[in-house]
Amino acid sequence: MEKHEIRRKIKALRTMLSEAEKIAAADQVFSRLEQTAAFLMADRILMYHSLPDELSTHAFLRKWGNKKHFFLPRVNGVNLDILPYNESRLELGSFHIEEPTGEDFADPEEIELIVVPAVAYDNTGNRLGRGKGFYDRLLSTTKATKIGVGYDFQLVESIPAEEHDIPVDIVITQTSMIVVK
Question: Strands (DSSP E) along the chain, which ranges?
Answer without folding.
Answer: 44-46, 69-76, 79-84, 90-92, 98-100, 113-116, 120-121, 127-128, 145-149, 170-172, 177-179
